[in-house]
Structure formats: C-alpha cells, structure tokens
Amino acid sequence: MVKHPMLLSDVLEGFVDKKTSKNLIKRCGDLKVSGIKEDSRQMTVGDLFVARDGEHFKGTDFIEKAVTLGAVAILVDKHNATDADVDFEGYPVPVIAI
C-alpha cells in the first residue's frame, strides 16, 4: 500500500523508458495513485491495478472489474497483453504495458 498518494510517473520510474514514453508521461504521469493492487477484489478508488497472471487465471480478465471499482490506471505484461488481445484504447483509464 502506498502511504501517501504518489504520481503515476513516479510509480513507473524504472519500468518505462522516459525517452520513448514521453507521450505516456505527458498524458497520465500526473495521475495520483493511492495504492497498488494485483487482486481486483481488493481494489479501491485511486488504485493502480497490476493485471498479473496467476496460476489459474489471467490478470487481463479482471481489467474491466478493476476499472469499475476505481482503478486510475492498469499495468499489464506486454507479452500477456498481446496474447490476450488487450484493447489499450478501449478503457477510460491508461493501460500501460511493461
């Protein structure tokens, strides 16, 4: 859990290349993230959802639920997102592949 709201750009530090992701940083880097969750059942408004696969499920299957529960952004594994055919523009929040 994040103790104080952080900027999404700070959370993404080290995960995205700032040189090649300038548009991403401009578009959503100033979003405030109040928590980081990988279980959509524990989502609260303001959280960043990490759509990580588990042993018996695909994290990308829970993106819609996370958004409905108030996720401000979604992180997905770029390989899993491609396999799951994730529509990066089809959600009202940024979906970021790392």
Explained architecture:
With 98 residues, the protein is α/β, with parallel strands linked by helices. Helices cover 24% and strands 19% of the residues. The strands form two sheets. Strands 3-4-5-6 form a four-stranded parallel beta sheet. It has a two-stranded antiparallel ribbon with strand order 1-2.
What is the number of beta strands? 6
Give the biggest beta sheet.
4 strands, parallel
Helix content: 10-25%
Which ranges are low-confidence, i.e. pLDDT below 50, for 5 or more consecutive residues? Answer: none
Q: For the CA atoms, what is the radius of gyration?
A: 13 Å
Strand content: 15-25%
How many helices? The count is 4
Mean pLDDT across every amino acid position: 83
Structural class: alpha/beta
Order of neighbouring strands in the sheet with most strands:
3-4-5-6
Distance between the termini: 20 Å
H-E string: EHHEEEHEHE
C-alpha geometry: globular
Task: Present the secondary structure layout.
Blueprint: E1 6-7, H1 8-11, H2 22-28, E2 32-33, E3 35-37, E4 47-51, H3 63-68, E5 73-76, H4 78-84, E6 95-97
Parallel strand pairs: 3-4, 4-5, 5-6
Antiparallel strand pairs: 1-2
Which terms summarize this structure?
single chain; 98 residues; alpha/beta; two-stranded antiparallel sheet; four-stranded parallel beta sheet; 24% helix
